[in-house]
Each structure stands twice: as structure tokens, then as C-alpha cells.
Amino acid sequence: MSEDEYWFCLKHHTVEGRDGCKNADRLGPYPSAAAASRALETVQERNEEWDNDPAWNDDDPDSSDGPVDGTRSS
């Protein structure tokens, strides 16, 4: 791990270095303090991307918990 890593503390809503709160309460590591400060925005953006990803449509009635490639066994 690099010493130039930063985390976003979900408990305190602050950017922390390596010696911050426990990892269960943090997002990261991020390569810069600026990136860590945007952690919640990044999470929201990724969630929206994944929610709109046509490869993952949980609302499709024909979807199954089968293989990722969409094949089904007979």
C-alpha cells in the first residue's frame, strides 16, 4: 500500500489517512484526498450506472439466477 492513500469515513463524513477509523466504517482507499472527498458521489454515480446497465436487469421476468452469459440448462 502506498502512503498516499485516503479513505472517506462514513461515521464522521471526513477524509482520513491510513490511521483513521476502522475499515468497516470507511470507503477506499482512494489515490488522493480529493477523490476520497467525492466518495459518496462516486458511489451514487456507480449505482446509477449499474442500475441502468442492460446486462443487469433485475426486473426482467425471464431473468434467472443462472450463468452470467444468459445460457440456461435444459
How many whole angstroms does the radius of gyration measure?
18 Å
The helix content, as a percent range, equals 10-25%
Major β-sheet annotation: 3 strands, antiparallel
What is the number of strand segments? 3
Mean pLDDT: 85
What is the molecular shape?
elongated
Q: Secondary-structure element order, as H and E?
A: EEEHH
Terminus-to-terminus distance: 47 Å
Percent strand equals 15-25%
Uncertain spans: none
Tally of helical runs: 2
User: Based on helices, strands and strand pairing, what is the structural class?
Assistant: alpha+beta
Strand order of the largest sheet: 2-1-3
Provide the descriptors you would attach to this structure in a database record.
74 residues, alpha+beta, three-stranded antiparallel beta sheet
Characterise this structure:
- The model has no long low-confidence stretch (mean pLDDT 85).
- The protein has a domain at 6-51.
- It is elongated, with a radius of gyration of 18 Å.
- It is of the alpha+beta class.
- It has a three-stranded antiparallel beta sheet with strand order 2-1-3.
- The N and C termini lie far apart (47 Å).
- The protein has two helices and three strands, in the order E-E-E-H-H.
- Strand 1 and strand 2 form a beta hairpin.
